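Tokens as discussed.
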């Protein structure tokens, strides 16, 4: 309840500051955020959910759903104590979407100014960017859920590395990732697998029928209760060659430089420059041009990505997923910004760790596991 009230207050302040009377939250990530992990998702190929929440500038909260969904929403996703529910018939929703907007307006004063998180109606502005800013600073409860998710995902990747076998296809390995995470009620919303030369060829290796012979890259964006933790792992049959080790050490240096610089007040453009300088110092200056380096995380895989023109500002208790890559290898972890520095939440303790010292402080990146 405290978490819900804190988030409601953030939305109320945002509405007042921007002269709106109410906001409709329909996107699946925003529904999960406000409800502390609830889901309005049925068709996961869409950003839209099957139920909406309206928050008003005086702190009111309403659940809107068709008769198909409202009972399940109240039974399994939200509490009647926290939301007033309003249902509508599904025929009207399909035949005349504007009729649903009139349902929303029925709880507001005449002429009320309504905004939405994603485009829904022609006369309601979409303000996802302003809503996203309300999400950035994690609550105490969210930090706990995120840390649990990161730990479980990191440990799952260890088990996956121990289960997959040489000769397995990328598709088979991807299914192992999904299954192992699902055991802990985690969904892999991004699952990438590359073996051998495909690691060097593509930065987003969607799994294929190619079979693993020597080197393996495992990537997941692991989602539970709406929160998403991203992590990548490198595995080698036998000892990796010196060139792969050198590149992975360099990627770990970039990762450490980013972690060290991810402090409250730092801007996205400053973080991008830190990464660019680290690539130069590592001897791989051009690699920053081959892929983005990651950025703020939470209820989306990335809320924003660091780039040369980014004016976004790091906040305390904000999550970040950095993913520096050098052709043939990658380092990726998710961390939360704390008062004393960043705390990595996705560690895989039985993987080798690469220690990088910056200004007297040690940062650890996951190295290559030999099997």
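Sequence:
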């Amino acid at each position: 309840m405290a978490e819900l009230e804190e988030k409601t207050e953030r939305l109320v302040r945002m509405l007042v500051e921007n002269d709106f009377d109410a906001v409709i939250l329909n996107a699946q990530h925003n529904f999960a955020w406000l409800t502390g992990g609830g889901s309005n998702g049925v068709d996961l190929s869409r950003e839209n959910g099957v139920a909406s929440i309206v928050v008003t500038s005086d702190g009111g909260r309403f659940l809107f759903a068709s008769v198909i969904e409202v009972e399940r929403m109240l039974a399994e996703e939200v509490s009647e104590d926290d939301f007033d529910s309003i249902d509508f018939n599904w025929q009207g929703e399909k035949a005349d979407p504007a009729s649903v907007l009139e349902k929303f307006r029925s709880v507001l004063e005449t002429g009320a100014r309504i905004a939405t998180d994603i485009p829904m109606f022609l006369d309601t502005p979409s303000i996802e960017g302003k809503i996203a800013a309300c999400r950035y600073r994690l609550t105490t409860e969210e930090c706990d859920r995120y840390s649990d998710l990161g730990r479980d995902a990191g440990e799952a990747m260890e088990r996956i590395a121990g289960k997959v076998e040489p000769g397995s296809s990328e598709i088979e390995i991807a299914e192992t990732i999904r299954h192992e995470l699902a055991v802990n009620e985690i969904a892999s919303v991004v699952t990438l697998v590359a073996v051998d030369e495909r690691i060097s060829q593509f930065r987003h290796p969607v799994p294929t029928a190619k079979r693993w012979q020597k080197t393996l890259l495992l990537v997941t964006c692991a989602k539970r209760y709406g929160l998403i933790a991203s992590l990548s792992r490198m595995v080698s049959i036998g000892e990796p060659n010196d060139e792969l080790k050198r590149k992975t050490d360099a990627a770990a240096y970039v990762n450490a430089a980013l972690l060290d610089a991810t402090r409250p007040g730092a801007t996205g453009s400053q973080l991008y420059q830190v990464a660019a300088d680290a690539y130069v110092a590592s001897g791989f200056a051009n690699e920053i041009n081959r892929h983005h380096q990651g950025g703020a995380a939470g209820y989306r895989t990335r809320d924003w990505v660091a780039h040369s023109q980014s004016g976004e500002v790091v906040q305390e208790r904000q999550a970040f997923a950095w993913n520096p890559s050098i052709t043939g290898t990658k380092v990726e972890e998710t961390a939360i910004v704390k008062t004393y520095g960043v705390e990595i939440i996705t560690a895989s303790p039985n993987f080798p760790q690469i220690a990088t010292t910056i200004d007297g402080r040690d940062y650890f990146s996951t190295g290559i596991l030999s099997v």
